[in-house]
Design goal:
The chain is α/β, with parallel strands linked by helices. The chain folds into three domains: 69 residues, Winged helix-like DNA-binding domain superfamily/Winged helix DNA-binding domain (Arc Repressor Mutant, subunit A), CATH 1.10.10; 243 residues, 3-Layer(aba) Sandwich (Aspartate Aminotransferase, domain 2); 113 residues, Aspartate Aminotransferase, domain 1. Helices cover 40% and strands 12% of the residues. A hairpin with a 2-residue loop joins β7 and β8. α2 crosses α3.
Amino acid sequence: MAHPVLPLSLDRSSDLPLVLQVANQTRELVHTGSLRPGDRLPSIRALAADVGIARAVVEHAYDQLIAEGWLTARRGAGTYVAQVGRLAVLTGARGSPTTATVNAGTGGSDPSGSNKAGSDPVRLDTGSPWMDPRHDAGWRRAWREVSAAHIPRGYPDPAGLPELRAELAAYVSRTRGVSCTAEEVIVTGGTTHGFGLLLDVLTRGPIAIEDPGYRAAAAVTEQAGRAVIDVPLDSDGLDVRALRSNRADIRAVYVTPAHQHPLGITMSAGRRIALLAEATRRGAMVVEDDYDSEFRYDVAPMPALAALDRDRVIYLGSASKSVHPGLRIGWLIGPVDLVVAMSARRATRHDYPPWPLQRAFLSMLREGHLDKLVRSARRVYAGRSHVVAHALSPYGKIISRPAGMYLTVALPGRLVEAVRTESWRAGFDVPSLAEYSRTCGMTGLVIGFGGLTDEELSRALDVMTTALARLSG
């Protein structure tokens, strides 16, 4: 079977690695329909010869696209375009979705009562990042710059500092494939704050959220006076068929496609296209919480869902997982009319983004401090993820993909409660998967390993594995 010649144009002077150039351009050929489902791609040897690059570059690019679900490999038969559906049905006039819709961590619990660490056990939560002390100098430089800066007059721009918005637009374009302008960016106090701002200006109606999922998003939805529609998941991500069968007038769907919270799975390429098609059919928005996408260890991070449809997808980002959760700074990217509406609403209630925090974060972006933090943490998380998986895989099914700062293991409910009780008594608070579920009934443990020392993680695993070994016979 003949394979197509891929029309790739590589720029060796670009800062973008050749692997990502090959992956991005091949992915775009699938997006546009130039490559159709079932088409066979050139072999690694043939494509490397066609474009004059090393075979390893092509191999890594193909591995990336296979991991994302755009391609499939058939043993002994080659590499083919996966059945991901058609993107053409998703695109429409820019701004049309918002014209119709614009209107003028889970806390820990005590499972047993007492613990030898007193009232403040070490919580293995999913939101506390590892802080590399080698990069403290970058943090201090950022705040020295704030102290030396000219203090502006009056209140800040409710959308955020223009220079920070421009820097964020460049950052998400470079790291997440989301091409946008500064005018499409609004600086927030984190993902839940940004989500709340969005709910203020969307047409009234229920919001669909993954179950199990990010319970803070459900809480924000309910506090805004909206109903939550729980949507189940499978191995490809949010179950679009279940969403399609729901007759409620859903106005938005809140998803974590890069690293589903808390199961840790990645939404497949086909499921992404199906979700966007369903949102288009309903005239609803898709809210993408991209909370820790930069921490993928096996391949490069999958491009954001917003890269597929800039009109339909609202993108939420945060510095909580990369810099510090206490910084309370994030960003929302969406159509200009939404950003203007949210900014106006913020101004009326004096909800301004703090100027010192914005200036400090701007310095971190410009000086590459954020990139350094991400690279260091990614290496640490990759090692810790392997340790946790090795320790717990004999006792339960590891659900999570190799990414992020936590790992989820499915276990029977009786084992979950027993392990949590033993861990609490030893001074560790281990989250239960049930804490993230409203209706699905899944049981297991969610092991956060970002905010711990190596010694703390080792002790916690010893306690858990000892309990599991005894209870499972």
